[in-house]
């Protein structure tokens, strides 16, 4: 079988509107795929964070140090 020009090239030219629609469709598909992937990643990370928080022991706040009472000033006139 011999390859012909008609098999590889579209003999009819596309209008600029058709080209714009194809580009728009492709761009919207890419954006939707990225948004879906971002949402899945966000949900996965949120689940992992909640799991870590549930496993972690709640830490008590550090005890505050008591300050010693102020010493009276020595012999003021």
From TrEMBL:
Biased amino acid composition, Basic and acidic residues: 15-27, 36-46
Region: Disordered, residue numbers: 1-77
Source domain of life: Bacteria
Name listed for the protein in its UniProt record: Uncharacterized protein
The species this protein was found in: Rhizobium anhuiense
Source taxonomy: Bacteria, Pseudomonadati, Pseudomonadota, Alphaproteobacteria, Hyphomicrobiales
């Amino acid at each position: 079988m011999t390859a012909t020009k008609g098999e590889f090239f579209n003999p009819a030219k596309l209008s600029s509107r058709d080209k714009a629609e194809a580009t728009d469709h492709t761009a919207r598909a890419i954006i939707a795929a990225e948004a879906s992937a971002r949402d899945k990643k966000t949900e996965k990370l949120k689940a992992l964070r909640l799991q870590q928080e549930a496993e972690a022991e709640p830490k008590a706040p550090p005890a505050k140090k008591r300050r010693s009472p102020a010493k009276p000033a020595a012999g003021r006139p």
